[in-house]
Amino acid sequence: MAEPITVDDPDDPRLHDYTGLTDVQLRRRREPAEGLFIAEGEKVIRRALETGHEARSVLMTAKWADVMRDVVEDLAAPVYVVSPELAEQVTGYHVHRGALASMRRRPLPSADRLLSDTGRSTPGADGAPAARRRVAIFEDIVDHANLGAAFRNAAALGVDAVLLTPRCADPLYRRAVKVSMGAVFHVPYARFAAWPEGAETVREHGFVLAALCLSPTSVPLDELAARRPDRLALMLGTEGEGLSPGALRAADTHVRIPMDAGVDSLNVAAASAVAFYATR
User: Fold this and answer.
1) How far apart are CA 33 and CA 266, in angstroms?
2) Cis peptide before 78 (omega within 30 of 0)
3) Could you say which of 32, 48, 174, 202 would form a disulfide bridge with 38 (CB–CB 3.0 to 4.6 Å)?
4) How much of the chain exceeds pLDDT 90, in percent?
5) CATH number, position 17
6) What is the pLDDT of residues 237-265, one digit of tens each?
7) Contacts of 45 by beta carbon, 8 Å cutoff, 6+ apart
8) For residue range 71-84, what is the model confidence (pLDDT) as tens digits?
9) Measured between alpha carbons, how far is 39 from 217 in angstroms, rounded to an integer?
């Protein structure tokens, strides 16, 4: 059981993990290098712990120490109790959810290893876990809110795994985790070492690569779903430009979501929800 420790000095070195949380560039450098990520809010912290992530420490106000008493009692990590004012001094913003946890990152598998592992698909007739059958490839999505929402869609709609290109945002950045409501902890993911070269690794595992785009050769999403490919990789691109020319060339087929009222495309998170639902 972790005994809560009251801290009243914003410069206390024990609070180092939580300093400057609003500085995106700083946190993007620090967190992977130091092997940590930040979970914000009771539900997200609980989900991180439930999925086996290890806490380095927890920072909370006195009000939340009571709400999360059962969590605190089971932790081996230190729990620091601070005033709301001190929490804001340390983090750089008003921590209205009242609790933050510094969690240890796990090593990411390679894309090849991730696709080789069995996934969440329905077990076969012999009861053995089935191979991953449907994955998402996110290319260069740099907006953390969009990435978090897309991960939440993937978890809700049964996508077996996510593959990220090298320039994609960090799914474990605080805002991405928060928007996903902890779904980033439930969907296995890996990051390609190189892209679009990594597309060949996906193809070698028997996946059809379907690029969501507005190219003249694209077919309606319903048509792709009707083909029922045994293994499908859905490729989604950046918020502004969509998929890169290299990604489009690497794809086996181009797919579009039919639109009305003169709208040519959807936000990438919304498009992912439509694509994941249509190909369930």
Assistant:
1) 34
2) no
3) 174
4) 81
5) 3.30.1330.30
6) 987 789 999 999 999 999 999 988 667 67
7) 39, 55, 58, 68, 71, 99, 100, 101
8) 888 899 999 999 99
9) 43
Residue 130 pLDDT: 63
3-class DSSP assignment, residue 72: helix
Q: Are residues 87 and 149 in the same domain?
A: no
| 99, 58 Cβ separation under 8 angstroms | yes
Identify the CATH number of the domain in which residue 158 sits. Answer: 3.40.1280.10
Concatenated DSSP letters of 148-199: HHHHHHHHHTT--EEEE-TTSPPTTSHHHHHHHTTGGGTS-EEE-SSTTTTH
- How far apart are alpha carbons 234 and 66 in whole angstroms? 44
Residue corresponding to tokens 């490839």:
137
Q: Total domain count for the chain?
A: 2
State how far the alpha carbon of 96 is from the alpha carbons of 88, 91, 135, in Å.
9, 12, 35
pTM for this one? 0.91
Which pairing describes strands 161-164 and 189-191: parallel, antiparallel, or unpaired?
Answer: parallel
d(CA 153, CA 235): 14
Strands 36-40 and 99-104: antiparallel
User: The tokens of 15 are what?
Assistant: 């609070």
User: Two tokens at 132?
Assistant: 């991953």
